[in-house]
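tool=predict chain=A
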Amino acid sequence: MDGGLTYQIWRDVLPPLLLDAHVPSEMAAILRAVVPQIGALTAHTHTVNEPVDAAKRFPGALTTLLVGLQEPTLIILEDLQWAADSVDVLRDLTPLLAERPVLVVATYRSDEMAGLIDNLPGAESIVLGRLSAPALADLSRAILRAGRRLRRSA
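tool=predict ok
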């Protein structure tokens, strides 16, 4: 993986999913490699030490967790071009989630990882063009205005 920790794109995604999930101690020990605060997020304390091969076992634990989701769930993964370690995980997950109430939306820069979509059979691609200079200026102004409104209301 370039420029980050192993499976980093899952670090912000997993905590909310773990709040209501039943996570056996062995699975929690594996997920702890990516979500260090797992003990505070789940209903019970996990005393099992993180296995030496937690990074290798992470894809299986993640798959078990996501395939077990019963409620409609949207998972947004950003900057997949920097998460090469997760492309294989997504490739294996895609067919398993096809009949589950789970939608994974991932963003990536095709100029940094050309052909990524070809590695994810069953995935659909929506190509978004870059913003023009005027559109970027409008967006920047809107963001700054929203920030000012939030500071005033705080």
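The mean pLDDT is 85. The CA atoms of residues 15 and 37 lie 8 Å apart.
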